[in-house]
Structure formats: structure tokens, C-alpha cells
Amino acid sequence: MKAMILAAGLGKRMRPLTDHCPKPLLPVAGKPLIVHHLERLKRAGINEVVINVSYRAEQIISALGDGSAYQMSIHWSQEASPLETGGGIQQALPLLGDAPFLLVNGDVWCDYLPSVSALAAGDLAHLVLVDNPSHHPEGDFALHQGRVSPHGEARLTFAGISLLRPELVAGEPPGAFALAPLLKRAMAEHRVSGEHFAGHWVDVGTPERLAELDRHLQSA
């Protein structure tokens, strides 16, 4: 199985840290945030990773190269301007191939990855959901008996980690578009499964949460 790391964002919430450094290269516990992702993917047995880049792309490509330093192969999908999540995935499909792939938001930290077996034959997506953080108390989706819905009680937050089939985005018009509406459409067709991960997860979206994660990993 291949994986894709989303790393094309502008990192606006991280300013001023991202004025001169792209968010994936911000250091956490002595190494760039994106390197934590690469090392975790490698430990999970994934050897091919696609990374989409746009803002300060040359810095990220220069830092990571072809992936040989991490005993894996990195393929780059460069966007002239950010294509949002859905458009970024669609542009990268020639690099990802026809099989299901693991998708990881570059600005989260989590020590869990789902197994490819979690994606059932008829489903388009399998989402990892976590407890709602204080900065997102309303959550995103409901999870009931392994199925994900945009409506319902006991809502959870999407962790930014999922298994996807290329068909989810392949038929959309090229260009920038969001992933969430496509997921909700697939949920309406009962084609999205999910699981609740109760371990440590951080949306590394602000300098404060970056510093908090750094302290947590340093102490561990």
C-alpha cells in the first residue's frame, strides 16, 4: 500500500513561524514534523509515499529528497497553487495508482495508522476518528457500529488519517476542490466506515499546539 501526505497548505494559522519555513518542516522534538510521519509510515511497512507540495515546495523537496534517507521512495506532486485536499489528491492519482491508499494530513500528529484491511470491498473511505479537542468541541461526524455519518449524536473529530479509494475523487472536474463534500456524499451512500482511536492525537495547527506537542514528545 502507498501513502500520501498532504503538505501543500500555506500554514496561515502557524504564522509567524511559517513566514519563512513551510509547516511540514517545523521542528518537533528535534526533527521536522513531516519526518515523524515518514518514520511512522516506514514502521508500518509502507515504502512508497506521495507528498503534495505548493508553498515553499522547494524547501520541502530539498530537505527530504527522494526518500532514500528514510529507506523509502518519495514521489512529489507539485501544485502551482494549493488545490485543496480533494484537488490535491486527484492530481496525485497517477503517482498513487489504482489501489486504496493511506492519506495523512501533514499537520496532525498521531501514533496510530489503520490497517488496509479496515477498508471493506464496497466502501470508498475508512476514517480514523478521535475525541473532540477543546478547540473543536462540536466534532465532525458520528460513528455508529463502524459506520460514519455526518449526522447523529456522540460526534467525534476526523483525525486527518484515512484509507481512500481513488474512485472517491477521480471523477471530479480538475482543479481545486474540498474532500469533505465527497466524503459526505459517500456517507449518504453508506460507503464510509470508521473507527475511534482514543490515544494521543494533536492537530498541530497553531504555534501553541506545536509547542505543546514538542514538550510532550521531549518528556516522553
UniProtKB/TrEMBL annotation:
Alphabetical list of InterPro entries matching this protein:
GlmU-like, MurU, NTP_transferase_dom, Nucleotide-diphossugar_trans
Give the EC number.
2.7.7.99
Keywords from UniProt, A to Z, are: Nucleotidyltransferase, Transferase
Q: Where is the Nucleotidyl transferase domain?
A: 2-112
Could you say which enzyme class this protein belongs to? transferase
Q: Which domain of life is it from?
A: Bacteria
According to the UniProt entry, the coiled-coil residues are: none
- Molecular function per GO: nucleotidyltransferase activity
Report the PANTHER family cross-referenced here. Answer: N-ACETYLMURAMATE ALPHA-1-PHOSPHATE URIDYLYLTRANSFERASE, NUCLEOTIDYL TRANSFERASE
| Name used for this protein in its record | N-acetylmuramate alpha-1-phosphate uridylyltransferase MurU
Organism from which the protein derives: Vreelandella lionensis
